[in-house]
Amino acid sequence: MHLNPYGEDAVNLAADLANRRPTTADELTTRCRAGGLTLSSPATPQDLDHTLDALDMWEKVVDTADEHERANLVNAMLAASTAHPRLSNHADDGWHVHYREEHRHVGPLLFGLISMGTALHLAGRGMHRLRRCAATECTTIFADTSRTGRQRYCSPRCANRDAVRRHRARTAFVAPL
Question: How many CA atoms lie within 13 A of 159 on its CB side?
Fold first, then answer.
């Protein structure tokens, strides 16, 4: 099976932005660049609005358990973002495929990137490999990139906390009547 890192990187950026939503255009620009994106210009307030709308749509994909509905939602995102693949050497780091036009504003660029990255991730890794943490008190979104595809928690901390909670529930002292 061929795993596309474009999908993984894009879906991890989407999860990061969804889990801790940017509140300003400057923050969006900083976090996109920290995530490895080469931007031709900084984000604007309109880009921030567009990105937040895209994240709302994306979270519906995350929260849908049915594979067919999940595919329909991703397909709707792909249709709305309409970006054609193209060869690019925009950062002078070698030719590679991009799913965006040159000099696209940050908001539409992220929408296309998140849409295509999610499609590649789910098709390449499995339709179930995008979810929220299984720990009761945690709502963090993560992309399961584990070898086995059975990751249930966003972090070892949540996994350990949930294991302790389950252990304590099983071994709780029951007072005699």
Answer: 7
Prediction pTM value? 0.85
Residue in the block written with tokens 């252990």: 167
Q: Using DSSP bridges, classify how beta strands 86-88 and 141-143 pair: parallel, antiparallel or unpaired.
A: unpaired
SS3 53: helix
How many CB atoms within 10 Å of residue 104?
A: 18
Whether 128 and 116 have beta carbons less than 8 Å apart is answered as no
Q: What is the largest CA-CA distance in the chain?
A: 75
- The H or E element that residue 142 is part of is strand 141-143
Q: Is residue 31 over pLDDT 60?
A: yes
> Residue 5 above 90 pLDDT?
no
For the chain, give percent helix, strand, coil, nearest 5.
Answer: 55, 5, 40
Q: How far apart are CA 94 and CA 1, in angstroms?
A: 24
Please name which of 104, 143, 118 lies closest in space to residue 54, comparing C-alpha atoms.
Answer: 118
